[in-house]
Amino acid sequence: MKTVILAASLIGLFCTSCNNSPDNIRDAILNHKNSFYYINFRSYPSNDESLPVGVFDSGTGGLSVLADIVQHDGLAAESYIYMGDLANMPYGSYSLENNTDLLIEHVMKDVQFLLGNKYYRSGNATTPETDKKPVKAIVIACNTATAYALDTVKRFLREAGSDIGVIGVIDAGARGAFGNFTPGENGSVAVMATDGTVKSGAYPQAIMLVNREDGQEEKIAVFQQAGIGIAEAIDGSPDAIDMKATAPRADYKGPSENGSGDMKIDQELLERYDFDLSNGAILFEGDAENPRNIQINSVENYIAFHVVSLMEKIRKTEGALPLGSVVLACTHYPFFTEIFRNEFSRLRDYRENGEYIYRSLIAEDLILVNPAVEVADQLYEHLASRNLLYEGTGEGSEFYISVPSLTNKQVKLRDDGSFTYDYKYGRKAGEIQEYVKVVPFSRTSIPEDVLNRLSVQIPGVWALITEFNSASPKAGYLSPSEKITVE
Question: Which of 44, 288, 294, 374 has its CA 20 to 30 A from that of 116?
């Protein structure tokens, strides 16, 4: 009898230990009441049309999706909570380091933030604020997160007993890819995405599924280009860009002459890249006539490099059909749609020794696809089908960004306060801790040049951001009285 009691006691102790140590982020959210990430789904509000819609991305790129959502006639009255996981971005690079389990954990934490009520005032705050609203639907405004974690998120919400709808961007992009094709027409589609999205194979699969829907399967070739460095440069990541640099950098992680695949700068293609060499946009050794150790140091040059690399893949493919559409399959890319468009136009007209190199491979009426327009339609249809459309004023949106947690002694930071590359991509999934703190948008958490760009490129969303920061007790960092100077 004593043996049985002792065994039962040991089992009890073991279970208590299990309760104190969640196995993974899903377990922490659902089962561990003392965890920072725990959410009580039994008390979660249901069928409340006044709640905001949650939108998240790995950085500020998802704001391009939000811009199209707020412009939708049927969604103008809604409010939104946006979260950009800037500290852990870019999500597309986790596949480069074979750590997609950690990527999925980041996505689950993003979802938890939108569902929960906690945020911090700053990266060194010790106590979270708890007055953030929950959300009634979630938009994953990130192609890589959609590719790797959409099914995981949906399965998690079903397990939690939640009826919250989740919308990703890949299906929307796949449908948009056929906007330049008539029934029965053959051709090529390009997908310009992050390395993670490319490696997932999600877009080719989705495009082929859409192709078969009408029962008339056209011959569609899908070419993918991993735009390594573009999203990072857009959000000012030091892995990709340093506008203060005047010479090649030791911590540069972008394409190079010694790279391979989508990371190789081919010296024989320098004229085709047509890099802008002014103002430090390219870092190199030697002179402009014979540059060595080339490093890309501007968004525009990253785009030029990857568009040429894409067209070289198509050019070297026997029997390749003309490119009819290009899916901008990273939410950062639509901010620079005109730069992409100009590069394809330049290459269509590009000649060497009097011969056009790419003209036959680029349709004259080539379209660039922004999946966000279709996402907005899907969100509207979802809310309408569940009677969750709100007849409000469109006020009360909130904007947050992640920053490294300065109270977590395990984090490893660069001199500029961001995670080191090895720490960012070397952490292990399942070690449940607060690597980051989610804080309101501010000048201290987002580079000034990024804020300048947002104020110009998405004025409607920028107005919501400044309204949040000037009117809400949560923030006050970007009030109208502190207007940003736009160059």
Answer: 374
